[in-house]
Amino acid sequence: MKPVKNAAEILDLYYHDLRSHLLEAAATFDRLERAGGLPADEPRLRRLRQAATVVLDDQPDRARRFLEALSE
């Protein structure tokens, strides 16, 4: 049975992918802002912003809470 990876190994494995995905999300929010025309209370944009805060908090079950924020 293969041993479970420790946190440093997981970070080594996923760092570049995670950085790329976060950069793409930031760039998309920038493009939306520059394009304008969306009301501040646009439901999809509101849910995406709420989900983004989940990614950065220190609470457990981020993946579940992220999906819940998008499905409300």
Summarize, please:
This protein is mainly alpha-helical and 72 residues long.
Chain-wise SSE layout:
Blueprint (H helix, E strand, L loop, with lengths): L6 H29 L7 H14 L5 H10 L1
Which key features would you list for this structure?
single chain; 72 residues; mainly alpha
Strand content: under 5%
Helix count, per DSSP? 3
Q: Tell me the series of helices and strands, N- to C-terminal.
A: HHH
Q: What share of residues is helical? A: over 70%
Q: Terminal Cα separation, in Å?
A: 40 Å
Number of domains: 2
- Give the low-confidence spans: none
Task: Count all strands and give the number.
Answer: 0
Radius of gyration: 16 Å
Structural class by sheet pairing and helices: mainly alpha
Shape: elongated
Q: Could you give a short account of the major beta sheet?
A: none
Structure overview:
This protein is mainly alpha-helical and 72 residues long. The protein folds into 2 domains: 1-37; 39-72, no CATH class. Helices cover 74% and strands 0% of the residues. It contains 3 helices and no strands. The protein has helices at 7-35, 43-56, 62-71. Helix 2 packs antiparallel against helix 3. The protein is elongated and about 55 Å long. The protein starts with 6 loop residues before the first helix and ends with a helix. The mean pLDDT is 94.
